[in-house]
Amino acid sequence: MKTNSINRQGIQAEIKSVSTFLILSLMIFVLTGSIACNSQVSKDKGQWRQLFNGKDLTGWKHVGPGSMSVENGMIRGHGGMGLLYWQGEKFSNCQIRVVWKMEKENSNSGIFIRIPIEPREEWMPVHYGYEVQIDNKPELSQEDEYHYTGTLYSLTKPLAKPGKPGPEWNTTEITLDGLRTIVYVNGVKVTDFKEGDPVPERKFDFEPFRGPRPESGYIGVQNHGEADVVYFKEIAVKPLAKPVK
Fold it and tell me: Same domain, yes or no, for 40 and 133?
C-alpha cells in the first residue's frame, strides 16, 4: 500500500510537471503570436495599398455597357454607362485615394462606395450605393450643385468647389468612418455626411434612392459615356487609424 501511494504521488507529480510545461509553452506561443500579429499591424498601419497595379485590371471586374482598359499606365473608360469595381472585398473604416483627370476641360464620372452587394449590372450601385461625383460643371446637363465634384451625387451640397479642369490632375480622398463619409478634393473638404443627415428629395430617375447605406461595401469607378472620358492613375486604400473628429 505504501509503495502504491508513493507511485501515485510520483505519477501525480509528473503529471503536474508536464501540465505546467504545457501551460507555459502555450503561454509563450500565444504571447509570441500576439507580438508577431501586433508587429504586422504596426508594419501595415498607415500604409497605402494600391488596388490598381498600373499595368492591367487584375482584381477588377466590369459590369454594364462599355468597357475599361489600361492606357499608358492609366485606367480609362470606353462608352458606357458601366462600372469597374474591385472584386471580392468590401471596404469600411478606411481611406480611399483616387488620382484622376478629365480628358477634356470637363467630363463626367464617379467613384462608388458603400455598394451593398457585388454588382451584376450598372444601376444597382447607382441606386443603392453612394457615388462621389466627378463633374465640375453639372449645369451643362441641367443639374445643380448637389451634383458637383466631391459631393455624394444628388445628396450633399458641396462645402467648396476645388475641382481642377482637364487635363489637370485631381486627388479625391474619401474617408469611411463608420457611417460617416468625408470627401476631400485636392486637399479641400467638399463633403462631410453622416447617415441620417437630411438630404433633398429625388429629382431625376437616374439619381440614387434615398435611404441608409451599409457601413461596409464594394467600391468602383464609372465609365459614363464616350464623350466623358476620365483617366485614373491611382486607386489606393488604407485602414483608418482612428475615428475622425
Answer: no
**Residue 69's beta-bridge partner residues?**
76
What pTM does this model have?
A: 0.81
Domain range for 221 is 49-239
Q: How far is CA 18 from CA 11, 25, 32, 43, in A?
A: 10, 10, 21, 37
CB of 151 closer than 8 Å to CB of 191: yes
pLDDT digits (tens, 9 = 90+) for 173-199: 999 999 999 999 999 999 999 999 999
Which 3 state secondary structure label does DSSP give 32? Answer: helix
Number of C-alpha atoms within 13 angstroms, CB side, residue 27? Answer: 6
pLDDT at 7: 40
Whichever domain contains 93, its CATH number is 2.60.120.560
Domain shared by 149 and 29, yes or no: no
Q: Which residue has the cell 437616374?
A: 206
Question: Closest by alpha carbon to 194, among 140, 124, 114, 119?
Answer: 114
Assess if residue 153 is contained within a domain: yes
Average confidence (pLDDT) over 118-129: 97
Q: Are 116 and 219 in the same domain?
A: yes
Determine contact, residues 235/113, Cβ cutoff 8 Å: no
